[in-house]
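go over this chain:
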Amino acid sequence: MTSKRFYHIGFGQEDLGSSPPRIALLSGDPERAAFIAQTYLHNVHLLSENRGLNSYVGYLSNGRPILSASSGMGAPSLSIVVNELIQVGIKQIIRIGTCGSIQPYISVGSIIISNAALCRQGAANDIAPVEYPAAADPFLTVALVKAARELEVEHYVGITASVDTFYEGQERTDSANPNLMRSLHGITEEYQRLNVLNYEMECGTLFKMAGVYNFAAAAVCGVVAQRSVAENIVLSKKDIAVKNAIAVAVHVAANFD
């Protein structure tokens, strides 16, 4: 490890204090990272507000140090942040995000815990071969499931389609480009038949990085769209979905060994 301050995250190992965190809660949205810090952490210290990548360090109520950070949108940005977080000593990362369900039985407002990803991401291909498995850490994943049960949060566990784009890659046609490539026509239905649960844009690369870099990674996402019905985000259910995902992740961060 090194004491230098990293260019993108804007802090170094020495900024984490005498009791540095080993687990990070990683959100795409900087406002979500701030919400976690302000709501769940004590003695919070802002590490950096750099390039929209906000990072905070603080303590949970049981005294455990935690890093709450944002990764930006998409796998390329996440890959930079995760690389630098590992260099400052982080050993476990839980992604807290949002997603769109593609299975009709999964309701908006629930959460999905990804145990693996169908990884269709260019950033991941720079880290490991296409065939390399994008698998979540089984122990962190089981801990998330147990936390969801204890907190009585509606949850589903399964495979996530992790893609690079929000519109074309998730077969959205209500956009500036309604003319999808032939390879993308019908892909959502195909994924449904493969028992894929949802679309999101980061965890496939995160899971491959975890395997290559030798750290533990998991992902929990609030369901904000039901893609078997419509393409739009259901804003009225977004807050509860995100808060449930956060609560489950924080519970694990407080208790995971």
User: Anything to note?
Assistant: The first strand starts at residue 23 and ends at 27. The radius of gyration is 17 Å. Residues 235-255 form the longest helix (21 residues). DSSP finds seven helices and nine strands in the chain.
